[in-house]
Amino acid sequence: MADIPPKPWPTGTSEQIEPLVRRVLAPNPSPYTYTGTQTYLVGDGAEIAVIDPGPDDSDHIAALVDAIGKAKVVAIMCTHTHRDHSPAAIPLKARTDAPIIGCAPLVLDSDGPRADAPFDASYVPDQVLADGDTVSGAGWTLTAVHTPGHTSNHLCFALNEGGALFTGDHVMGWSTSVVIPPDGDMTDYMASLDRLYRREDTVYYPAHGPAIEKPQQLVRGMIGHRRQRERQILKLLAHEPHAIPELVARMYKGLDERLVGAAGKSVEAHLIDLERRGEVARDGEAWRSS
After folding, report:
1. Nearest to residue 58, comparing CAs of 126, 120, 123, 12?
2. Together in a domain, 139 and 21
3. Nearest to residue 51, comparing CAs of 209, 212, 207, 210?
4. Residues in domain Metallo-beta-lactamase (predicted)?
């Protein structure tokens, strides 16, 4: 996990990052969102799409409206429905009359460790995209890529012109994604990483952190990191059973206390995956090798 860079950050500023893509940073920094949620505007002419409108924050919505200007918003698109990604969709729709198009609605009670993560109950899409569905405007086309794992409804969006992939929280530019059961699923997450590794996208634009200029290299490293965590768990359980807090203490030396809960959920997600594969079993609160 990278350190958050010192201020000033370009919060509220429309930044041109390639000819068809601009970025506006929301004012919601945290240990889980880096400097904040990055909303992307796709299109350089009369028609644009807005990807991950972000939190329902009046300053951020005003910055988006200012960046949109006189362009027609063809679609407000959400990668998933955590509260740092989709709540601004409804007020932005009210300001632009644009349809909300993207991931399926998903609302679950959450005992997760992060205050910004519980699901957005206000999200009501006008159209849900299946894998391979497209949304088009003047000079651009976005294709939905189903990438469950971080959440079961997670989508990435591929920009057909230029090779960019908007990766939401599935692949981020500063940290690995948090996978929180029961909806977050490590088996699905690893399969989705493998799917992205086999694609030929040239750059990733994540919702948090810098652009990823060598995406296959990063994804390969992320897969290796998760496999290393698996090996750590199996090595520890080979000696004696452990409860999740004990595994976290052994596996994450010097971890920021604010991130201990998230680490525990990640370990739980790995254990569930390993249990499905017959490599570990539960013994009350403890886990052991099978």
Report:
1. 12
2. yes
3. 207
4. 36-208
One domain, residues 29 and 150: yes
pTM of this prediction? 0.93
- Indicate if 66 and 199 belong to the same structural domain: yes
Residue given tokens 């990823």 in the structure block: 212
Range of the domain at 270: 224-289
Q: Residue 43: how many CB atoms within 10 A of its CB?
A: 23
What pLDDT score does 116 carry? 41
CATH of the domain at 230: 1.10.10.10
The answer to whether residues 144 and 234 belong to one domain is no
Task: Check residue 106 and give its pLDDT.
Answer: 84
Q: Rounded to an integer, what distance in angstroms lies between the CA atom of residue 145 and that of residue 143?
A: 6
Mean pLDDT value across residues 64-93: 97
Side-by-side strand order, sheet with 100-102? 14-18, 21-25, 38-42, 47-51, 72-78, 100-102, 127-128
Closest to 257 measured CA to CA, from 12, 31, 75: 31
Looking at residue 114, its pLDDT comes to 46
Q: 146 with 133: CB under 8 angstroms?
A: no
